[in-house]
Request: fold
Amino acid sequence: MKIWLDGKLVEESEAKISVFDHGILYGDGVFEGIRFYNRRVFRLEEHIKRLFESARAIALKLPWSEEEVCQYTIDTVKANGLDDGYVRLVVTRGAGGLGLSPYLCETPSMFIIASTIKLYPQEHYDNGLSLITCATRRPAPGALMPQVKSLNYLNNVMAKIEAIQAGAVEGVMLNEQGYVAECTGDNIFLIKDGRLITPQVSDGALDGITRRVILELADQLGVPYEERSMTRYDIYTSDECFLTGTAAEVIPVKSLDQREIGDGKPGEVTLRFISAFRELAGSTGASID
Ligand code: PXG
Reply:
């Protein structure tokens, strides 16, 4: 596997970063995950824009332009000879001394991995996955801005452990006010009386690119939607529920806290979104050829 690291495509065994990198020492950095389908990188410019915005929000100045990073992403996918897969870009504050001041770090580091990812077995896409409500809350937006895709995922990792230990597949995370924010690595959507509902970003959700695609598709499919605060009651009493994320794509949910959602099977509106998403993802995106 070839890894893009600070300007060069190197062998995986050569792709090493310093133990003094503040990405490791303090989780000081940002990342993106992008899918490619049929040799086209899906929503490439949008992901790179979000990467740059995440970096700006944490006062991390990148020495490359957005266009250059798009090109490096394409170069990495190409160098690995994959038609379909997942690209992971990681930008760290770079190597500096001990001490959390980012001003100790001179140059940010970036690496790009082009590989494959499978978050869930096919069975969950066919039958829906089970969720629990996690006790671990999303940090308040005033503590950690939910839009920033930072290298601080401990909060999500703790929530994921809870979900798995409870025998579920994913976990719903609430914000400090008790409203639903999102899942540990996916955004959440409900269908109630023919309307699509998803929490607002200000409730602690990542402004997911797949989430944005679903809202665009809602317009095309003529499904009215609302971005609003929701509680667990809204999920328990919804007709359908699904999750979205670059890695997960669009996946139906069959239960929350052992309460069956709808009739416990992937709903009809959900299936329409899944097929519209697949069609779009399989036919659009930045070509690597
Ligand atoms: N919420 C959170 C907390 C996420 O981390 C999403 C929502 C979905 O956003 P997108 O833009 O992908 O539609 C994410 C996505 C990985 C990895 O290992 C990344 C995510 C999730 C799971 C794994 O690269 N981020």
In short: Residues 33, 88, 156, 182, 185-187, 206, 208-211, 244-247 surround PXG (CB under 6 Å). The two ends are 19 Å apart (CA to CA). Residues 220 and 276 are 9 Å apart (CA to CA).
